[in-house]
Design a protein that fits this description.
259 residues; Protocatechuate 4,5-dioxygenase, Chain B; single chain; 31% helix
Length: 259
């Protein structure tokens, strides 16, 4: 049964290998899909789709984008192809006019979307769309787009921002048992505290946060959080999930507005 008002979710998606593994993250995502009211549709803002202009996938059925290299063939064999919703895509384009338009065939669902949704909604039967991030926009604009998307929550649409609060692959240590640096833990906690306090402006102004350049040399994995914050209501409850920092990547997720 679909609810009339959905929460919003920021998810730390980490490695695409989560799509093949049974671990604490995939189990948490699976539990989340079972716990939340069934959405009428899902809209994902992923760190891995940046464009000039804002695009919304408008195909009748989504295709799987394998936007990585150097991983096992089994990962390239994964397919996540839920239906799209062309009418909803047109509605979103109108909501975000004049700088948004429907995208019929250039994209689909990238691993920022399907590596998480494969656990949350393995049946692949919920209409799912992806929204691109305009590389020409600043943080305040990303936040404003999130605000413009807020009415979708009352239409049963689950808005998901998929990225990582800390994402620095240059400093990431892949060795088993690698120590997570204190600055990464501190940055993650600093951001969480501001999310919990409703201090959105401090996160829009993330360039002023200590250690921000070590936390993410490029902001594409942080920007999906701004869409989620823009789409939330004042004083909604915040719940942190999959709350780990592994070397220089944060797996922290934030569920906002759930009962």
């Amino acid at each position: 049964m679909t609810t009339s008002h959905m929460p919003v979710l920021f998810v730390g998606h980490g490695s695409p290998m989560n799509a093949l593994e049974d671990n604490a993250y995939t189990r948490a995502w699976r539990g989340l899909g079972e716990r939340l009211p069934r959405p009428r549709a899902i809209l994902v803002i992923s760190a891995h789709w940046e464009t000039k202009g804002v695009l919304i996938t408008a195909a009748a059925r989504q295709r799987t984008i394998h936007d990585f290299y150097g991983f096992p063939q089994a990962l390239f064999d994964v397919q996540y192809t839920p239906p799209g919703d062309p009418e909803l895509a047109r509605t979103i384009a109108q909501m975000l006019a004049p700088y948004a338009r429907a995208d019929l065939d250039s994209w689909g669902l990238d691993h920022g979307a399907w590596s998480v949704l494969l656990s949350m909604y393995p049946e692949q039967d919920i209409p799912t769309l992806q929204l691109s991030m305009d590389i020409r926009l600043g943080p305040q604009d990303h936040y404003r787009i999130g605000q413009a998307l807020k009415p979708l929550r009352d239409q049963g649409v689950l808005i998901i921002g998929s990225g990582d609060i800390v994402h620095n692959l240059r400093l990431f240590d892949r060795r088993p048992g690698a120590v997570t640096p204190q600055w990464a833990v501190d940055f993650n906690e600093r951001v969480k505290a501001r999310i919990a306090a409703g201090d959105d402006q401090a996160l829009i102004d993330y360039a002023a946060l200590p250690d921000v350049h070590r936390a993410f040399p490029e902001p594409e994995h942080f920007h999906p959080l701004l869409y989620v914050l823009g789409a939330r209501e004042p004083d909604e409850p915040v719940e942190f999930l999959t709350d780990d920092v592994i070397s220089a990547v944060s797996m922290t997720s934030a569920l906002i507005g759930a009962d």
